[in-house]
Amino acid sequence: MAPESARTTGSSTGRSVEPPRRQRSDAQRNVVALVEAAKTVFAGSGVDAPAKEITDLAGVGVGTLYRHFPRRSDLIVAVLQHEIDECIEAGEVLGTTLSPWEALMGWIERFTDFVGTKRGLASALHSGDPAYGDLPQHLLDRLEPALQTLLARAVDGGCARDDVTAREVLTTIALICQPVRSEQPSFNQRMTEVFLDGLRSDTIRAGAGLTGRPPDHAAKSG
C-alpha cells in the first residue's frame, strides 16, 4: 500500500497536485469571464474598446487578459466562436419550443444581434489580418445548418417562402447589419425588418397583409 504522503501528493517529490488543478480551474473561469465581458463591451464600445474596460467588467487584471489573449484578434475570435456556439444552441431550443415562424424569426433576431451590435467588427474581419483567416466563411458554414433546420420547418408549415436558402438569409442579414455612413442604427433595423417581412410565403402575405400579425398567429385566428 502506498505511503499516505504519496497518496495525498500524487508524486514522490511531496508536491500536492491540488494547486495545479485549482490553477487550471481559475484560468478557465478567467477565460470565460473575459469572453463574456468582451462580448458586452464590444456591443457598447466596439471591438477596439480599451482593454481596461474589458478587464474591469471581467474582474481581472490587464495582465490576465494578455496572458490568455495576447492580441486583440485572439479575443475577437474567441467572442465570435462563443456566440456561434450560443446561436447553434438557441436554434435547438427555439425549434422545440416555438411555432415554425416564431422560431425562425427568434433565431434570426438573435443572429442579427450577434452581427449587428459590434461596431468595427466588419472592418476588423476584412482588415487582412491573418488571425481572422477564413472566419467569415467558418461562421456561415457553422450557422447554416442551424438556420436551415428552422427555415425548412417554416417552409413546411407554409409560413416562409421556399425559394430562399439559409445561406442567402445569413449573408443578407450580415450585409444589412453593416454600419451605413450618415445613418443611425435604426436604419439597419428597419431594413432588416423589411427583409424579414419578405421571407413570408405568398400565401401568408396574401392572407395577413404586409402589416398583419406574424403568420402563425394569423393562421391560428383564421
CATH class of the largest domain, named: Mainly Alpha
* Tally of DSSP helical segments: 12
Helix/strand class? mainly alpha
CATH homologous superfamily of the largest domain? Tetracycline Repressor, domain 2
CATH architecture of the largest domain: Orthogonal Bundle
Number of strands: 0
**Could you estimate the helical fraction of the residues in percent?**
over 70%
Rg estimate, integer Å: 23 Å
Largest beta-sheet details: none
Please tell me about this protein's structure.
The chain is mainly α. It has two domains: 45 residues, Arc Repressor Mutant, subunit A (Orthogonal Bundle), CATH 1.10.10; 132 residues, Tetracycline Repressor, domain 2. 71% of the residues lie in helices and 0% in strands. The protein contains twelve helices and no strands. The C terminus is likely disordered.
Key words describing this protein structure:
Tetracycline Repressor, domain 2, 222 residues, elongated, 12 helices, 2 domains, Arc Repressor Mutant, subunit A, mainly alpha, 71% helix
Provide a concise account of the structure shown.
With 222 residues, the chain is mainly alpha-helical. It contains twelve helices and no strands.
Write the layout of secondary structure elements.
Layout: H1 4-9, H2 18-45, H3 51-58, H4 62-68, H5 72-97, H6 100-116, H7 121-125, H8 135-156, H9 166-176, H10 185-197, H11 202-208, H12 215-221
